[in-house]
Hints:
The structure holds two protein chains of two kinds.
Chain A: H1 7-23, H2 25-49, H3 58-61, H4 63-79, H5 81-87, H6 90-95, H7 101-124, H8 136-161, H9 170-183, H10 196-203, H11 206-218, H12 232-255
Chain B: E1 4-13, E2 16-26, E3 31-35, H1 42-49, E4 57-62, E5 65-66, H2 71-77, E6 78-81, H3 93-103, H4 108-121, H5 137-148, E7 155-159, H6 167-178, H7 180-184, E8 187-192, E9 203-208, E10 211-216, H8 218-223, E11 228-234, H9 237-248, E12 252-255, E13 258-263, H10 266-277, E14 281-287, H11 291-299, H12 309-324
Parallel strand pairs in B: 3-8, 3-9, 6-7, 7-8
Antiparallel strand pairs in B: 1-2, 1-4, 4-5, 9-10, 11-13, 11-14, 12-13
Amino acid sequence: MNTYIEFNAVYVIVAREFKKFIREKSRLLSTIARPLLWLFIVGSGMSRLVTTSIGVPYMQFIFPGILGMTILFSSIFSSISIIWDKEFGFLKEILVAPVSRFSIVIGKALSGTVLSTFQAIIILAFFPFIGLSLGIGQIAEVIFICIALSFSISAFGIVLATFYDNYESFSVIINFIIMPMFFLSGAMYPVKLLPVFLQFVSRANPLTYGIDAMKHAIFTHKTGVMSPDFSYIIDIAVLIGTSIFFVLAAGKAFESKK
Amino acid sequence: MPIITVQNLTKNFDKITAVNDISFEVEEGSIFGFLGPNGAGKTTTINILCTLLSPTAGKTFIAGHDCMKEPSEVRKAIGLVFQDTTLDKDLTAYENLIFHAYLYNVPKQKMRERVYDALKFAELYDRRDDLVKKFSGGMKRRLEVARGLIHRPRVLFLDEPTLGLDPQSRANLWEFIKELPRQHNVTIFMTTHYMEEAEVCDRIAIMDNGKIIATGSPAELKTTIGGDVVYIRTADNSKSKEEIKRLLGFEVSEKGDELYMTCAMGDTCIPEMLRTIGGRVLSVRLQRPTLNDVFLKLTGKAIRDEEASSNDDVKTFVRAYRRKH
Lengths: 258, 325
């Protein structure tokens, strides 16, 4: 595989997605509304049910998970814009250009990263409203994790997009990939409380490690049932490892499309 | 040296042969027309030339570069306007063009200038900040053609550029396309369904069932018809057909409810025919040869006739094949 990267091409692919995103107010609204609904409605309902003896209030506990959810939806959706481009013919304009397939994949993955991180930062700004107090260092840490997680999931989304040709397949992706990924990521409940079989699935889910890393960064409380499931080092290593793996896989999948 | 060389090109999709051992050359600075009914293999050939598809056998060169071995060099040398629009409708005209300029690595200091030139050339300068979805079909086409020229390609491919346009936009677009070789020093490789539009070509290749069945300038091709075409409608076509054949020695063919025959001098042929089968003739018309007649003679069908289902099958098949691979 040719891994040569054309910076102009990567830049313009990202710039296009960003411009379109900014223009589409409804998309911005819906991607921000979903996590906030989960955080404030599900979160406040559940916090009546779950005692604070677990270490942190439930609404705070799910905060990293909600950030993960924002990134999951936004990254998958922005990568899957490839299917849209395919349907409306624009992908052809990109494919006939003298640009390596790898640059196109990098461009698409970075578009997803920029958009997801941007949205995650908006959600992150709500932390004072749920009683969290974060220092500048912690915020920077969380943003860094958001970038790594966004890149990994975006690259995963591109791999998915190469399997589908039309956008009717969206519902399949949402029901059979996005929702299970979310529920088995430790976002709403700790992975260690899951049945063994499901724990196994959770461990194969990159989102789990992203959310776990954010738990490390946000909570100083490191014991009890709601504490992180893995070590911080493992979380970061998995995020970086899956980013590289998925982006190479996406490049490969894209190249073999003839 | 020719700018495009195709040697013994063949492309199979599983069991179907879409392109069957074709060879041709295109001279630099000319307008080359690639004609044929749906499913003849035109689009497959174009996709191979522009490196989107790999051939089963044969070689293709553009501007001296092998399409298989140096796809990147070939892509730099070509511009493309596809049958279906490939503009981003949610971006403005200007943004679509600047996107293209970045993608083709146009030097930064020349980018703006070239994009503005292209907008002026497409007569869309005043609409540059409008979203493309607000444009008419003709405006989109002009924008796409202008976009295809931003990186100064040596060959511009136009695949059915006038498809779906109203007659007036079509005429305007051809005026615009005719100027390209002179103004932009570019070779045009085009396909079209409208034979009258192919008159602008310097050379034409006619393709049918994956084979090239004729090449030449429009004038040369028309002389192969061997003269004017006389169309008649009669009260009893099969009887008249038989009589004209037997008594006058003309080869008569049938199309719809008309009979037609080719004769060197149509004006003298008509009275002769009227004397022979006079009573049965309902109407007569004389047609000077057009490319459509050439096509009709070579393939036995009009280019715009609804194609027999076999060709549609090829198209569906090719689509299914692409999806699988």
